[in-house]
Design goal:
The protein is an alpha+beta fold. The protein has helices at about 1-5, 10-20, 20-25; strands spanning about 35-40, 55-60. It folds into 2 domains: about 1-35, no CATH class; about 35-73, no CATH class. The longest helix has 10 residues, at about 10-20.
Length: about 70
């Protein structure tokens, strides 16, 4: 996606860091109330993945939510 949009890794990291205070204040506290949380992170399986095209995904679901069936990835 970086290449497609013409952004460098450094500019993306700077953009994320610039919004971190808002994330910490408004988004992160809501995780405790969410029925589903999806985390997308760089993989640790490929040590030389400099392009970061392989991602690690974690799905966290709250138990006992009506109409939700357990999901296993």
């Amino acid at each position: 996606d970086m290449e497609e949009r013409g952004h460098s890794l450094e500019s993306i990291k700077a953009s994320i860091e610039a919004r971190k205070l808002d994330f910490d204040a408004y988004v992160d506290p809501q995780k405790q109330y969410a029925d589903v949380v999806i985390e997308v992170l760089p993989t640790q399986l490929i040590p030389d993945d400099n392009e970061r095209k392989v991602l690690r995904v974690r799905l966290v679901m709250k138990e006992g939510v009506k109409y939700f069936n357990p999901v296993y990835l």
